[in-house]
Design goal:
heterodimer; A: 582 residues; alpha/beta; Pyruvate-ferredoxin Oxidoreductase, domain 3; Rossmann fold; 3 domains; six-stranded parallel sheet; 22 strands; B: 285 residues; eight-stranded mixed sheet; two-stranded antiparallel sheet; binds thiamine diphosphate; binds iron/sulfur cluster
């Protein structure tokens, strides 16, 4: 990386042709060489055909976002060429599959385009078409003067389970691409290079936020997942099914999301930590179950992976459009918590916290993410695996033996009533979706006093809960000309943008709901100009902030076109704001 | 040993006098007792409806769920703790209407639990509207000139969807109903009992009982071939006369028996603690 701190490599082609697999191999090879990467894939909601891209931003320092400016593009089709070429920087290189198309020469001055005859090279080397992407990886390695041995080693490790034939074939493919590029593509003139780091950090993994939610759930002792497939939450289901035998977690794919949430509730009532995962559309079906968990005071963790809506929206793209919905979803009034990890590492941490909060307060807790971080791989340090598991007040048979006439919904000072787990002698009770007395038995409005008491009991948990929620985190200088305010996945792009914005700081929110007025006021105190940055149209967090605290943000930066923010966009918008009114 | 009354609270039932729910309540609590169960070993999940109002009356671990959602809650309770005896109650509205999808898939899945569907051919708690089992031509609040939708036959659907135990009982015949419940509770797999449950309010009280009494007959428990799904399907479809008893029973591995995680230990009895992440981290390098 001589010219730039971050190098972005992109490959575009047809869905189903394996760009994502090949791209991930390259990412892993970079990671094994001690480099840091962040990847992102653009793909349509179909299985074969249509444009697919895979993009990888690489740096020798941690990189927390995908960059738009591309130094090296592999275009496998004309469509990919047309879509990706505008992002290629001056001095960059495009390799195009010359056996598929010939690009016109217009509109890309300062960029070199070289033919890469994938079919011909593949035929010569005796490689099936599916490995064509690996030829392109080989050519990439040659151009960037990266270490081919690391790539070969990565292939051996990743494809080990598929057998030596697959390993050898893929290694042959990278070698053929590498040799071709060395001979024909003037790597000496290509200004961007990639070299393995000398002192490699040993404990690094390349993961998505989905992986880390799954790992966090395992680590937190979750034993039950009921989940109905829906992009972008399905990878969590896939991970946990793949790992079920080793983790001991019970994973079930039920008939619909309504069933999924009620199963998660049933398992939690029966005494195990349980979870469901879905996207906004699936959660819409679960909404009644959210209210059920609240009324029965059953601990519940719900993962919601956002994609653009309304309705089916853009199934395979990204947005932060469901925050406001989750704060209000469900009929009636009740407490719920929304945790919004900004990256893979936070996804792990907050998943652990979600289970503790759900059980300690006997409430539903959301982990709210989006496609961008659920599907993008990022290099992070190995997590510590040191969660303190806090299950809240659960009575054992011994405890129960000392209690006469156990009351499940005992009206306590904290609002938290100790739970008894089915199967325990002395703890029988009714968990009830109807309003109930302390025993759990249904009551009517005639018992007005008890009705009010139970409502107050449930809400009494709020003050302790607020004190325990993760606090806003400030990045950058304590005081700044302009303060960006964001939540969830905007963190990564903002942190990258701040490398070019020294007068700007960022307040990162990982627990957008419920909101503590005093916490927010303290966190924003003395900041001159607050700019909310959100991947939605209406500025949902800014609205919540105003409603809960009266604080009005000065400006908003929003994006709602299916893509996440790019660091350079943020830099440009912030600079414009500073010069316009600063 | 626990008696039927040990499974009964002191709460006054909300059912109308002479409602069919009383018979089922007596039969089921008696069945629990005769099977040697204790209240803390039983979980019942309840739907919303007149049948579900019984939640206040059963003295055991109860979960009063939402309308149509008794099956998924019960399913997961069983998966989390397969030492428990798990019974889901529902009406014909909750079981075949609002929760119809759960019903179908629970039959396929074959978790070891019991589903009792109170068929009173009406949405009774909501004051007598048409239900999925209302007979053709019956006039209700929402079928002013008579119901026009083909009534749904629950036992036939259960058989088609793959249930491993399908029976029908009559609420007034508590002795035979109790025996059916006992067989259902001890069946290894998903057992469905459809209960003919007279509603004395939204049906003329005397008529419905007279009608049931004249039409109902017991399957010959010695000679009826309970292993024949086809025959059971035909039998369950009779309308001129109404057979009660066990239509069908088969031994099929339960859903949970396919999972190593549940083989030797219940999920709930395994400690909730840190798991070694090394094997997973290896895949994520
Ligand atoms: C989601 C939802 N929809 C509608 C209702 C209103 N509701 C309560 S009970 C019931 C139907 C009851 O009929 P059934 O399930 O047959 O039980 P029954 O009262 O006859 O025992 C309905 C529609 C509800 N509680 N929840
Ligand atoms: S309305 Fe019918 S079903 Fe409901 S309690 Fe009365 S008799 Fe029973």
């Amino acid at each position: 990386m001589t010219k730039t701190e971050v190098l972005t490599w992109k490959i575009g082609g047809v869905a189903g042709a394996g760009q994502q697999v090949a791209g991930l191999i390259f990412a892993k090879a970079c990671s094994r060489g001690g480099l840091f990467t962040f990847d992102s894939s653009e793909y349509p909601s179909r299985i074969r055909g249509g444009l697919v891209t895979y993009r990888l931003s690489i740096s020798n320092k941690p990189v927390t976002a995908i960059y738009r400016s591309t130094q090296l593009l592999i275009a496998l089709t004309q469509e990919a060429f047309d879509y990706c070429q505008p992002d290629v920087v001056s001095g960059g290189v495009i390799l195009y599959d010359s056996d598929t198309f010939k690009p016109g020469r217009k509109g890309f001055d300062g960029i070199k385009a070289y033919p890469l005859p994938l079919k011909k090279l593949g035929d010569e080397a005796g490689i099936p078409p599916l490995a064509a992407n690996m030829l392109a990886i080989g050519a990439t390695v040659a151009l960037l003067k990266y270490d081919l041995a690391i790539v070969r080693q990565t292939i051996a490790e990743v494809f080990r389970d598929k057998g030596s034939e697959v390993v050898v074939m893929n290694q042959k493919a990278v070698q053929a691409g590498f040799d071709y590029a060395r001979k024909n593509l003037e790597p000496g003139k290509f200004p961007f290079t990639l070299s393995p780091v000398k002192n490699r950090p040993a404990d690094k993994i390349l993961v998505t936020a989905s992986d880390m939610v799954a790992l966090g759930a395992i680590s937190a002792g979750c034993k039950f997942l009921a989940s109905y497939p829906m992009t972008p939450a399905s990878p969590i289901l896939h991970d946990l099914i793949n790992w079920a035998e080793k983790s001991g977690m019970f994973v079930i794919q039920p008939e619909d999301e309504i069933s999924a949430i009620h199963m998660a509730i049933g398992a939690a009532y029966a005494g195990v930590r349980s979870m469901t995962a879905t996207s906004g559309g699936g959660f819409a079906l679960m909404t009644e179950g959210l209210a059920l968990a609240a009324m029965t005071e059953t601990p519940l963790v719900i993962v919601e992976g956002q994609r653009p809506g309304p309705a089916t929206g853009l199934p395979t793209w990204t947005a932060q459009g469901d925050l406001a919905y989750l704060t209000k979803a469900g009929h009636g009034e009740f407490i719920r918590v929304i945790l919004a990890p900004g990256d893979a590492a936070e996804a792990y941490e907050l998943t652990g916290q979600a289970f503790n909060l759900a059980e300690k307060y006997q409430i539903p807790v959301f982990i709210l993410l989006d496609k961008y971080i659920l599907e993008g791989h990022q290099s992070i340090a190995v997590p510590a695996n040191n969660f303190k598991i806090e299950r809240g007040e659960i009575l054992t048979e011994k405890d129960l033996a000392g209690i006469k006439g156990y009351k499940r919904y005992l009206n306590t000072k904290t609002g938290i009533s100790p739970r008894a787990i089915p199967g325990c002698r002395g703890g029988i009770h009714l968990a009830n979706s109807d309003e109930h007395d302390e025993f759990g038995y249904s009551i009517e409005g005639f018992s007005a006093k008890v009705v009010a008491e139970q409502a107050e009991k449930r809400f009494r948990k709020l003050s302790r809960l607020l004190a325990e929620l993760p606090k806003p985190k400030l990045f950058g200088p304590k005081k700044a000309r302009l303060t960006l305010l964001g939540w969830g996945s905007t963190k990564g792009p903002v942190l990258e943008a701040m490398k070019d914005l020294p007068q700007v700081n960022y307040l990162h929110i990982t627990a957008p709901w419920p909101m503590s007025e005093s916490t927010m006021k303290k966190a924003l105190q003395g900041q001159r100009r607050i700019v909310a940055i959100e991947n939605n149209f209406t500025g949902q967090f800014a609205e919540i902030l105003r409603g809960q605290t009266g604080i009005k943000v000065t400006d908003r930066i929003s994006k709602y076109n299916g893509a996440q923010f790019y660091p350079d966009e943020i830099v440009a918008q912030v600079k414009r704001l500073i010069t316009s009114k600063g | 040993m626990a008696q039927a009354k040990d499974f009964q609270t002191n709460n006054k039932p909300t059912w109308c006098p002479a409602c069919g729910n009383y018979g089922s309540y007596a039969a089921l609590t008696q069945a629990f007792a005769e099977l040697g169960l204790e209240p803390h070993q039983v979980v019942m999940t309840f739907d919303i409806g007149c049948n579900g109002n019984g939640a206040n009356n059963y003295r055991l671990y109860g979960f009063h769920s939402l309308h149509g959602r008794t099956i998924p809650v019960a399913t997961a309770v069983k998966l989390a703790n397969n030492d428990l005896t798990v019974v889901a109650l529902s009406g014909d509205g909750g079981g075949y209407g609002e929760g119809g999808n759960h019903f179908l898939h629970a039959c396929r899945r074959n978790v070891n639990m019991t589903l009792i569907i109170h068929n009173n051919e009406r949405y009774s708690l909501t004051t007598g509207q048409t239900s999925p089992t209302t007979r053709l031509g019956d006039k209700t609040k929402t079928a002013l000139v008579g119901s026009i939708d083909q009534p749904l036959n629950g036992p036939q659907i259960a058989l088609t969807a793959g249930a491993t135990f399908v029976a029908r009982g009559f609420a007034d015949d508590t002795a035979s109903l109790k025996e059916i419940y006992k067989r259902a509770l001890t069946h290894k797999g998903f057992s469905v009992v459809e209960l003919l449950q007279p509603c004395v309010i939204f049906y003329d009280a005397k008529n419905i009982r007279d009608e049931y009494r004249s039409k109902i007959y017991k399957l010959d428990s010695k000679n009826w071939p309970t292993n024949n799904r086809q025959a059971a399907y035909q039998k369950a479809g009779e309308t001129a006369r109404l057979p009660i008893g066990i239509f069908f029973q088969e031994a099929r591995p339960t859903f949970e028996s396919h999972f190593k995680a549940l083989a030797n230990q219940t999920l709930v009895s395994r400690p909730t603690e840190k798991v070694d992440l090394t094997p997973f981290l290896k895949e994520l390098k």
